[in-house]
Design a protein that fits this description.
This protein is of the alpha+beta class. It is 29% helix and 18% strand.
Length: 657
């Protein structure tokens, strides 16, 4: 029997991290020779060069010359500091196999298009050029002639056609076509216009398609090699069943789903790819995950030297964040922006900078809050669903929170009381939305909870729900130390709710189980920081029914809307209107300001309905970077919808010890 991944499993598969602050330049007619660039384990770049190890393979006849490995017009990356030197290894750490999403957003991100340095415009990446029609129904792409997979096989429109027709829109493999390829309820068609060019044609306008593709943590059209995967396709190969089972899968559908949804990227090192570095290990197989340089990588510096500069990447598979922190303090990590870069750890990390040989860089965050409280408005429990769905109940809980106390204790007095709302730096900032119901006012809390109809037993006892039982629910929070401030804040907050008669308990689970509970709609509430503080249009899930962990306040509403009412739970009219505006108006509106106006209407509904509760403004983020690591921007974005290479381009990193 083969395993099928349904709509919800697909939509909720994803991760959170990001960065960027470097532009991408285009290069025309670059003359690329095979001149050597040094010997031994490293070397200086000399123009039109390559790593010494690769030059040695060329000299021995084991590898084609550089001019035959690069596309005719490679993508040129303008270094932050300047041209680098070949050699060395970038050291980092992962916490278990569940951390693989960091690979999707960093090493695994090579999309047709990407974001520019300022997160404003979409620019070419794997595609040499692109153009959207005026009515936003047709997007034309031209691939880079001569582009090759990591095993040397040409990457052409054949691969794109296979990925789209035989995998992404094959309902035996992907039961529901991904939303970015739908318009007017129909899947787009792919029209081949040349060996290196094709069009995506929609049944109706799809104005945000390019932005959506730039925001994907790994474009499906650029990571499904036909020559490798077609032998596992039951329609294309008579030996597909046996071939899939020989690789440890129950059958070809399970294998191909694993390829489509990205799991195979980090479990099968033999899978050809377009990435700068290639995995030598399957994630979770040992205490390390190592990557080595891709000899067919298709980006160069302005002098024509092939990237990446670094020989490889070495991830330590750590047990927990404490192990990672010790490695950072010991100078054994070259770059890290997660797990240990918390407010609580910053004094320790600051004190250890000289001995550890590292510094800080700034992360401009898209986070929407320090703690977003999402009561599950689609709870399976009818009583809880009625309680959580009462707006006065949510307002009462909000007034009961002493936000300044949490800010002082957990966030070192940084930030201000804030709801789930765009930040002051966002084009969508709304002061009223951000500050409503943020006063600490127990009397107002009691008034709204009384108005909701949930009176206290004996005048000062627990509040009783519509079933006559004390109101009590669990609040889901992540286990481990990835975001310890969530748990710290929650432990201070829950006694405040208890004072007004509402009992809530902490339910701490690891990432895998937490995601499963949300997907199965088996959670009462979730606390998360959430995305969409800077750019809510790219990540609206904290404000309306949408995909992912940000949508934990109404997962069944989203399912109902996505399936046209066939599954899930029917949402109220305001949520339907939000979804309609986002999926119809914002999709068909070709004018950017018109789309912005639509997003403001969505936010206005979110403000009025008050779906979720926030604590305080998201704090400025920071990352740790080794003093020897070069070409790392001083400022980057931290956003789920702005993956690393949009501006950082890790392939330009080099180490100068």
């Amino acid at each position: 029997m083969t395993r099928r991944i349904g709509r919800r499993g697909f939509l909720l598969a994803g991760g959170v991290t990001a960065a960027g602050a470097l532009g991408v330049l285009g290069l025309r007619g670059c003359d690329l020779s095979t001149s050597p660039s040094g010997g031994g384990g490293g070397g200086t770049v000399t123009g039109n060069g390559q790593a010494p190890e690769l030059q040695a393979l060329v000299d021995s006849g084991e590898l084609p010359p550089l001019s035959e490995r690069l596309p005719q017009r490679p993508l040129v990356v303008q270094p932050v500091d300047g041209p680098g030197t070949y050699g060395e290894t970038w050291r980092s750490a992962l916490i278990g196999a569940g951390d693989s999403f960091r690979l999707n957003h960093g090493i695994g991100y090579e999309n047709l298009v990407t974001w520019d340095a300022e997160w404003r415009d979409v620019v070419p990446c794997v595609a040499e050029s692109f153009e959207m029609s005026e009515d936003a129904t047709r997007v034309s792409f031209t691939l880079r002639a001569g582009l090759r997979w990591s095993d040397g096989t040409p990457f052409t429109v054949d691969d794109v056609e296979f990925a789209y027709r035989d995998l992404i829109t094959d309902t035996e493999i992907v039961p529901d076509t991904p939303g970015q390829y739908l318009a007017g309820g129909q899947a787009a068609t792919l029209e081949r216009t040349g060996e290196h060019s094709f069009d995506i044609v929609f049944a109706g306008p799809r104005a945000r398609y390019l932005e959506e593709m730039a925001s994907e943590a790994g474009d499906m059209l650029t990571r499904l090699p036909k020559h490798f995967l077609e032998r596992f396709h039951p329609r294309l190969s008579p030996d597909a069943e046996r071939a899939a089972q020989d690789r440890g899968y129950t059958g070809p559908v399970e294998l191909l789903q694993d390829a489509v949804y990205g799991g195979m990227l980090w479990t099968d090192p033999e899978l050809p790819r377009l990435h700068a570095w290639l995995p030598q290990d399957a994630i979770g197989d040992g205490t390390r995950m190592r990557f080595t340089r891709n000899p067919y990588y298709w980006k160069v510096d302005p002098e024509g030297n092939q990237l990446p500069y670094l020989n490889g990447v070495d991830f330590t598979m750590a047990q927990d964040a404490e192990v990672v922190l010790l490695r950072v303090l010991g100078g054994e990590v070259d770059l890290m922006d997660r797990h240990v870069t918390t407010t609580q750890n910053k004094p320790v990390l600051a004190e250890g900078r000289e001995d550890g040989g590292y510094g800080f860089y700034d992360l401009e965050t898209d986070k929407v809050n320090t703690l977003s409280i999402m009561l599950n408005l689609t709870s399976q429990d009818e009583v809880k669903r009625e309680i959580f769905g009462n707006r006065d109940f949510r307002i009462g809980l909000s007034y009961a929170i002493d936000r300044q106390r949490i800010i002082n204790a957990v966030h070192a007095r940084q930030g201000e009381p804030w709801q789930v709302a765009p930040s002051r730096a966002s084009d969508f900032f709304d002061e009223e939305m951000a500050t409503q119901f943020t006063e600490y006012d127990v009397a107002a809390a009691e008034e709204h909870l009384d108005r909701a109809g949930f009176t206290r037993r004996g005048g000062d006892g627990p509040r009783l729900g519509p079933d006559g039982e004390p109101i009590s629910f669990r609040v889901l929070v992540g286990a481990g130390a990835a975001k310890p401030e969530l748990l710290d804040a929650l432990e201070i907050l829950l006694p405040m709710w208890r004072e007004v008669g509402v009992e809530a308990r902490i339910q701490s689970e690891d990432l895998t189980l937490r995601t499963q509970l949300i997907q199965a709609n088996e959670h009462d509430a979730l606390v998360w920081d959430g995305d969409g503080g800077l750019n809510p249009m790219a990540g609206p899930g904290m404000y309306m029914p949408q995909w992912g962990e940000n949508n934990a306040f109404c997962p069944e509403w989203f399912t109902w809307l996505e399936t046209g009412g066939d599954e899930g739970m029917e949402p109220p009219e305001p949520a339907k209107e939000q979804y309609r505006i986002y999926t119809e108006e914002l999709t068909s509106e070709t004018d950017a300001e018109g789309r912005a106006d639509g997003m403001r209407r969505i936010l206005e509904i979110a403000k009025e309905q008050f779906w979720t509760i926030g604590i305080s403004t998201a704090l400025p983020g920071y990352g740790v970077v080794g003093n020897a690591l070069r070409n790392m921007p001083e400022r980057t974005f931290f956003a789920a919808t702005y993956p690393y290479p949009g501006g950082v381009h890790p392939e330009q990193f080099f180490i100068e010890r």
